[in-house]
TrEMBL record:
This is Sensor-like histidine kinase SenX3. GO terms for molecular function: phosphoprotein phosphatase activity; phosphorelay sensor kinase activity. GO terms for biological process: cellular response to phosphate starvation. It catalyses: ATP + protein L-histidine = ADP + protein N-phospho-L-histidine. Residues 41-269 form the Histidine kinase domain. Its EC number is 2.7.13.3. Transmembrane segments: none annotated. It comes from Bifidobacterium merycicum. Keywords: Kinase, Phosphoprotein, Transferase, Two-component regulatory system. GO terms for cellular component: plasma membrane.
Amino acid sequence: ANERYLSVRVSRIGDDLYALLVVDVSERRHFEEMRRNFTTNVAHELKTPTGAIALLAETITDAADDPDAVRYFSGRVSKESARLTELVRRLIDLQKMQDAGRTLEPKRLSALAVARAAIDANRVQAGQRHIDIVLSFGGTVLGAEPTEGEPDAWIECDESAIVTAVKNLVENAIHYSPERTTVRVVVDEDGDDVRIRVIDQGIGIPESAIGHIFERFYRVDPARSRQTGGSGLGLAITKHCVEDCGGTISVWSHESEGSTFTIELPAVAGDPATAQTTQPAQ
Ligand code: ADP
C-alpha cells in the first residue's frame, strides 16, 4: 500500500544540460487499477446470471414434454433474473453514491424516524423468515409507530443516504440469520455521538473476513451468497452513505453468535418542531 509510482522524464535542454522531471503518479495508477478491477468484477458478476439464464432456457426447450421439469427450471430462471435485477439495482445505487456532481441535502433528522423507515422497508422480508425486529432507544423498547414524548436523538444527514445505510444493515441482518430469531435496532446517544446499532443472532462473520466486508464485491462465502442472491455491494454502499453523512461504521462479529453493526454520527440539538417524517428510501 505504501508503494509509490513515479513517472520520470529526462529532457536535454543544452549541450551538457539535462532536465529531470519526476512526477508522483501513484494516485492516478491506483485509481486506474481500481476502475479496471471494478469493470472486471461487474462483467464477471453479470456473466454468471446471464450465462445461467441462457443455459436454463436451453434446458427448458429440451424438456418441453415434461411439465415438472419445465416448472422447476422456470423457477430457476426467475431466481437468476431476480439476482440480475438486484445486481443492477445495487450498481445504480453505487453509481449514484460516487457521482461527483451528486448533491447531498443534509437536514436535521430524528434518528428514530430513520430507524423506523429502515425497518419498515424490510418488514416483508422479515415476515417471510419469521424474524422479529425490535426497535429500542437506550434500554427502552419502542413500538412501530412514534408516540408523543418518546426519547429521541437528532442527526444532520442526507435522508436518502442514511436511510439506505440502515436499511442495508437490517436487510443483511435478516438475510444472514436463521428463521425465528430477533434483529435489534438500538438507537442511543453516546456523548456527542448518536449511535444506531443493528444487532443480529445470525451466522456471524469469520475473523479473517471482517477486514474485507466493506470492499466492493467481497462476499464471505460466494457460493452461499450466490444462492441467496447477494451482490457483495451492500456494505460498500452502506459505508459510502455513512461517510457522506460525516459518520463512521464499525462491526463486531463472532461466527455462529451474531453480528453488530454500529453507525456513529455527530449528534445535533433536537428541535421537535422541525421533526421530519421519514419515508422508506426506494
Ligand atoms: P451481500 O450482497 O453479499 O450481502 P454485502 O456487501 O452486504 O454483500 O456483505 C458482504 C458480505 O459480508 C456478505 O456476503 C456476508 O458474507 C457478510 N455479511 C454482511 N452482513 C452480515 C451479517 N449481518 N451477518 C453475517 N454476515 C454478514
